[in-house]
Amino acid sequence: xxxxxxxxxxxxxxxxxxxxxxxxxxxxxxxxxxxxxxxxxxxxxxxxxxxxxxxxxxxxxxxxxxxxxxxxxxxxxxxxxxxxxxxxxxxxxxxxxxxxxxxxxxxxxxxxxxxxxxxxxxxxxxxxxxxxxxxxxxxxxxxxxxxxxxxxxxxxxxxxxxxxxxxxxxxxxxxxxxxxxxxxxxxxxxxxxxxxxxxxxxxxxxxxxxxxxxxxxxxxxxxxxxxxxxxxxxxxxxxxxxxxxxxxxxxxxxxxxxxxxxxxxxxxxxxxxxxxxxxxxxxxxxxxxxxxxxxxx
Length: 297
Fold this sequence. Notes:
With 297 residues, this protein is α+β, with helices and mostly antiparallel strands. The protein folds into two domains: 3-134, Creatinase/prolidase N-terminal domain (Creatine Amidinohydrolase, Chain A, domain 1, 3-Layer(aba) Sandwich), CATH 3.40.350.10; 139-291, Creatine Amidinohydrolase. The chain has eight helices and 14 strands. Strands 4-3-2-1-5-6 form a six-stranded mixed beta sheet.
């Protein structure tokens, strides 16, 4: 997590304020963790970053779980009334005079409210800032992704053992989730997916450990990594474009990270690379890419 990387990218793109509603973005810049969310919600600015003050403000009624680096006076209270919430955001020092305000999501209602509360501001895409800041991972972040990958491996081991024992799909999913919980993790990136094609069974698992994602897909019987996946992983080198990898590719870190086909790989990027029935997590390096999902025979 790096507030400094976000502030640098804001300066480069001449953005004065960020209004962030996506959890991965808010968590990256603040280090705060959401306790729990059931279901879906529309966009709301849960995190505000003011470049001139180098300040991060969070939507919270309590300082429980808020990192020590964010003082209590940088918290703004929730409200069921969107107009009240936007008013509180506009009152944050440095927001009202902003010329360019980045948002990572928007509804027609919030767009109208922001236009009314910040009439002099131009609303721009905050995702461009956050994608650039989050693209390459620090040593600390890589350690967290490696730990998530280890949990995904434990889930896969349990799931494939159940497959080989002839267990039904519900049992396979259950033992995978049990293995995740036994590793001290409570949140899956998605429910384990099982696909049966004749005598072959594909299993996909994903985990969010402290917000950091790793996912893994294997098919039995068959090789751990088909030739197409092995070849695609080998092409994950600095300077290559995503379109050149020849596999299904997206970035991972604090959740799913979109990578357009034209994106050029850089050292320190972490990718989820998959072909039909197989997927691994890969670290891009200057030379040979590194598998973060440990090899399995």
